[in-house]
Amino acid sequence: REYLNPYKKHDAERINWMKGLPAELADAIPSAEAGSKTKTLLYVGCFPLREPGAEKMAQDAVTALIKAGVDVGVLGERERCCGNPSLRMGDVDQFIAFAKENIKMFNEMGIDKLVTICPFCYSTFKRDYPEVGDKMNFEVVHILELVDQLMQEGKLKLTKPINLTVTYHDPCHLGRISGAGISGTGAFTGIYEQPRSILRSIPGVQLVEIDRNKDDNWCCGAGGWLRNGYPELAQWTADRRIEEAKTTGAEALVTYCPHCEENLGEAIQRQGNNIKMCDLLDLVLQGL
Asked: What is the CATH number of domain 158-287?
């Protein structure tokens, strides 16, 4: 509660990820304000505060959108936590405070679309915020949905081949728990096809499916902030997932979640095997 983010960092550090962008890209990002003409807001989330290595995911996200010609703004120091850590750890009052503050701010800004990077943030906005009861005058989308759309429209053209056999890990918060109800029952369907469509559009990439995928996906071990409370269980869960990935014969395990990438990446290092951990949008940018 003191820092209002799970990594005990100050608000001024929320713009650190932008310092790693080329000057021409950093200058192209407008700061979203109330009454701004920018109708698409990129909600970065708290994960870049974790450590400098996590900043690249935010840098890749904004780079992809700007290269596609999307007029997107960011909040910088004014961004607030989505409240996911508070809710998952039982601090409901703090979660509701975050939700009400964020909804009020986004509504006053007059945005049409809120684009999220972190799946934890996405599921919180999509599934949990409506339970607070405040009207949300904006659409919540995940960046993979938008990137897939931009690729289908020809606004992101991938021409450089990446000769790589990959398997894809579905983040839980983009899949079976990304919305209210039970995924696949008709109430909603997780974000499953978009990342696969993106992978199939990258020249030279061959996708082989892991046995447990989509609604039956095996968690990376970081869900529910398990790493913080039960690190040994989180490690065991990730180790099992890497063993499953190796049975596909893939050279790389691809996903799109800062928490999945961290936990699975550490498991790969622990096991000392040759499979690579890859970020989906990093592959997209390599193919441009």
From this structure: 3.40.50
